[in-house]
Amino acid sequence: MSMILFACVVRVRDGLPLSASTDFHLDQDFLECRKKLKALSSILTCYPDRGTANERDLRIHFHSSGDVACMGICNSSYPAVMAFCFLDELQWEFATSYDAASVGLASRPYAFLEFDNVIQKVKSRFNYTSDAQTKFNLEKIREELRLHPPALVKLEELEMRNGMVNGHAELHVEPAPAYRMQPVSALGILSLVLNIMCGALNLIRGVHLAEYSFQEDHKGIGNVIAFLLPFAACFLSCYLYLFYSSARKIKVFVLFVTVCLCNFYLYGLRNVWQILFHIGVACLSSHQILSRQVVEKHSDFGGV
């Protein structure tokens, strides 16, 4: 059956894998093709934006745009125009989900693990269904391929480029840059202390209420959860302030909303001033997390 077997998103400048589909093919030809794809991903800067490599009954296709490339492994019988249409759609989905700064700051493999689900959905749609939008894109991609045919990558040349000896590739991959956060500010320290204090208060109240609820009845379980969720949110906020994490804005928003909703739910067990204090601490913490920027650490050769 002709189909897309594997797909991934990599950073063009060094081949760092950002996300990939979860596939469990044990076929030896496929596993060998995966190795060739990994080797190819590290030298994409040497090729045009579209290319194809043949490996026995399989094909590797890639489409680069900016600092991101989408790559896939298909059966040789799978139409090239369909494969590039798939990669083009994957490229668009990734570009609408992450900006260039996030891609540039990625320092570990598979930093955008949550995008795996998107890859799986798009891959399944191209493998098992067809719709009008896909047909429209096919015509567009077919015309683009007619005007600018994809480069044909010879895997023998790929092996020489990567210094493959006895089937073992010595990949010359540019190391991912290291990053550090800006120095902790006085307000940042204050937000950490207040977060720890609020977290401790929530934990103490939650544990005491849980003991009472389990002894008497289970009607107060909602209040217990409303205390424990902000406890977790407070300490996660401390982590986000101290260490860099991708999608910080979304995470901060979720934590802030969690604190607000739980405190509104606890109205009656807490008075208005207590609720305002906890929300105020969450506001200060959110502001400090978002205002603390990432600073790239450049190698200082010869420096002290």
From TrEMBL:
Bilayer topology annotation: Multi-pass membrane protein
InterPro entries: Longin-like_dom_sf, Longin_dom, SEC22a-c_C, Sec22a/c
Family affiliation: Belongs to the synaptobrevin family.
Protein name as it appears in the record: SEC22 homolog C, vesicle trafficking protein
Database matches in Pfam families: Longin, SEC22a_C
Keyword Methyltransferase: no
GO cellular component assignments: endoplasmic reticulum membrane
Keywords for the protein's UniProt record, in alphabetical order: Endoplasmic reticulum, ER-Golgi transport, Membrane, Protein transport, Transmembrane, Transmembrane helix, Transport
Lineage: Eukaryota, Metazoa, Chordata, Craniata, Vertebrata
GO process annotations (BP): endoplasmic reticulum to Golgi vesicle-mediated transport; protein transport
Record organism: Varanus komodoensis (Komodo dragon)
Coiled coil: none
